[in-house]
Write a structure and sequence with these properties.
globular; 422 residues; alpha+beta; 18 strands; Nucleotidyltransferase, domain 5
Length: 422
């Protein structure tokens, strides 16, 4: 999804047209590279009941189907001079002189964009001859993401999915709220009565997780609720329904990708030390912006226990730096000038000092690998680490439940809104 958002943001900033294709019966086009047999299908009469069918082509339901379809599509694109991205194999590109065309693929959904409108039109005809595609015209709906074009950019939302979700879980009588989780509530793994049907909770959290592709505002809440999937209880379900009540307040909310020419990449990272009351693990969060448009974010509980808030913050820095290493390669392939160093903002003075200090001591030797990685990228000039006040930390929304006023202020700064700024 980061690749899709980065590609759309690049196209918007450079003024490229975006088109969408859908391949009919995609998995049936795959050529099998190994022997696969299947039982006689119902309705086919044979004399010998011990016979079976040897497949010459791929079928829906085969474990190999998706891989064989990808191989088939890749071969067709390779024959036309395209190569796949080294950062993401679902992205193909072709550059010849001033012509630059990108093809983003997700199973049978394809997005085309670039500078060469003639090549894009020719490629659409070429793919139709090979696979029989459905040309959906200008990009408006892709992987559940709704693209709404404005004079100053595009708004990406999941409005239809959100409305359907509210209907599915019968939220018509619920009163809307202004924040996804109450800041005073602390959920624990063993508090409350076990749910008789845990699949209801798991289904709800799974659908909420899909919404985080455009809803930065619920990313922390969803990762927090995901910690209780194994044995969900009544308080966990109530908290999940609280998120639904928040979604009801504005189901059309999404991220706005500006057409401003600024492509400067900046990142914010934060952590909430020992946030989990059961394991005492910290929560890391980061967000990456291209100009003023959010293209990448993450909220995740750390895998180990941090012995201090400085250590927790430093692990958050390491997470975002790891993402930036990959993102810088992707931006280079998208032909977006990624001005180095990339500015990373952290609200912990201690974490900034640890990154800049070349000497290890008692407090940092147990996170030596993290220290080496961040310092190496700092010395290479990939990143530049800055301290900012906590009230200016945009990643705060990804590490803890916030009061509704602060929650709204951060979302406004992140261009999370229904209507783009004027």
């Amino acid at each position: 999804m980061t690749t899709v958002r980065a590609l759309i943001s690049t196209a918007v900033k450079k003024g490229w047209d975006m088109y969408q294709l859908d391949v009919n019966n995609a998995f049936l086009h795959g050529d099998l590279s190994e022997e696969v047999y299947m039982t006689i299908p119902q309705g086919l009469l044979v004399d010998d009941s011990g016979m079976c069918c040897k497949l010459k082509k791929s079928l829906y339901g085969l474990k190999q189907a998706s891989r064989q379809w990808y191989d088939k599509l890749a071969q067709v694109l390779f024959s036309r001079g395209y190569t796949h991205s080294d950062s993401d194999y679902s992205l193909f590109l072709r550059k010849t002189g001033t012509s630059l065309v990108f093809v983003a693929v997700y199973v049978d959904d394809i997005v085309l964009t670039g500078t060469d409108v003639g090549e894009i039109s020719s490629l659409r005809c070429f793919l139709h001859d090979k696979f029989k595609i459905k040309d959906l015209g200008k990009l408006h709906y892709f992987l559940g993401l709704e693209i709404l074009y404005k004079d100053t950019g595009v708004l990406i939302s999941q409005r239809k999915f959100t409305i359907d979700l509210l209907k599915e879980f019968d939220c018509s009588s619920y009163r809307p709220v202004l924040s996804p989780l109450e800041s005073t509530v602390k959920l624990k793994a063993n508090d409350g009565v076990l749910l008789k049907d845990p699949t209801h909770y798991r289904k709800l959290v799974g659908k909420l997780n899909f919404l985080t592709h455009t809803r930065i505002d619920i990313a922390f809440s969803v990762q927090h609720l995901s910690q209780f999937l194994q044995s969900p209880r009544e308080p966990h379900l109530q908290a999940a329904y609280h998120v639904l009540r928040y979604l009801k307040s504005d189901p059309c909310l999404g991220i706005f990708l500006s057409n401003d020419k600024n492509c400067t990449v900046t990142a914010y990272c934060d952590s909430d030390w020992a946030a989990c009351p059961d394991s005492r693990r910290s929560v890391s969060g980061y967000i990456v912006l291209m100009g003023d448009s959010p293209i990448c974010w993450k909220s995740k509980r750390q895998t180990t226990i941090s012995l201090s808030s400085a250590e927790a913050e430093y692990r958050a820095v390491r997470k975002v730096v790891g993402e930036l290493v990959w993102l810088e390669r992707l931006m280079t392939e998208l032909h977006v000038p990624c001005n180095l160093p990339i500015h990373v903002f952290c609200d912990s003075q201690a974490a900034v000092h640890i990154a800049r200090n070349p000497v290890f001591h008692e407090r940092t030797k147990h996170i030596e690998v993290d220290c080496h990685f961040v310092r190496e990228k700092l010395q290479e000039g990939l990143i530049e680490l800055h301290h900012i006040p906590t009230e200016e930390q945009l990643a705060d929304v990804l590490t803890k439940p916030l009061p509704s006023s602060k929650h709204s202020i951060i979302l406004h700064k992140l261009a999370v809104s229904y209507s783009p700024p004027t």
